[in-house]
Amino acid sequence: MPQITANGITLNYQFDGPEDQPVLLFSNSLASNLHMWDPQVPAVAGDFRVLRYDSRGHGGSDAPAADYTIDQLADDALALLDALEIEKVFYCGLSKGGMVGQKLASRNPDRLHAAVLCATSSYMGPPDLWQGRIDTARAEGMGGGGGGFGGLGGGGAGGPAYKDATELLYEQDGKSHELAGAFCGHGTSP
User: Fold this and answer.
1) What CA–CA distance (Å, rounded) separates 8 from 99?
2) Any residues with CB less than 8 A from the CB of 96 and at least 6 apart, and which?
3) Does pLDDT of 179 surpass 70?
4) For residues 56, 60, 66 and 70, what is the CA-based torsion angle, rounded to 10 degrees?
5) pTM of the entire predicted model
6) Paired residues of 92 in beta bridges
7) Residue 81 and residue 26 in contact, taking contact as beta carbons nearer than 8 Å
8) CA distance 183 to 113
């Protein structure tokens, strides 16, 4: 898996799809990795150059011993784009990835064509809510297909939350390009 230095850390990333298509950046949820998007990639990789990465502290990316902020995670995403010489992307983030997308859209709207923010919030919630999730991830790790946080995360693809997300994005009307269609009419075929 390729890695690159960005914002002072090493980030794990993967490209899928044709190099001549616009880039779609997928950002993972808490306690997951870039493989959480495995079910979605085949449906969009013909219309987009899909870029997935492991957020700081996740998967194969560096995990410096410190607390991380959404600002810092957004800086990481921008630094990744800069290091890969990508000026502008379509963006899709789930949960924590959606929070990162909100930060990018508010601070750097010129870097996004459009954003899809799934199962996310603009409010982080009380620290005790997140501390429990952090403790679970530290104790049990971030691997496994079923997800560690009530079906919202997990290192592998195919758990219940991923199947539901796939159904929502791709099976609502029997088409395989629902996500692509959400990106402001980017040329897709039914």
Assistant:
1) 21
2) 27, 28, 29, 30, 55, 70, 73, 120
3) no
4) 10
5) 0.76
6) 26, 116
7) no
8) 8
Q: What is the mean pLDDT of the chain?
A: 79
Judged against a pLDDT cut of 50, whether residue 162 lies above it is answered with: no
Residue 131 and residue 149 in contact, taking contact as beta carbons nearer than 8 Å? no
Concatenated DSSP letters of the chain: --EEEETTEEEEEEEES-TTSPEEEEEPPTTB-GGGGTTTHHHHTTTSEEEEE--TTSTTS---SS---HHHHHHHHHHHHHHTT---EEEEEETHHHHHHHHHHHH-GGGEEEEEEES--S----HHHHHHHHHHHHHH-S-SSS-SSTTS-BSSS-SHHHHHHHHHHHSSSS-S-HHHHHTTT-S---
Least confident range from 68-72, 113-117, 136-140, 144-148: namely: 144-148
Q: Which residue has the tokens 């290091």?
A: 83
Q: What is the mean pLDDT of residues 165-176?
A: 37
41-55, 88-102, 134-148: the lowest-pLDDT one: 134-148
Most distant CA atoms of the chain, gap in Å: 46
Closest listed residue to residue 146, CA positions, set 164, 130, 128, 170: 164
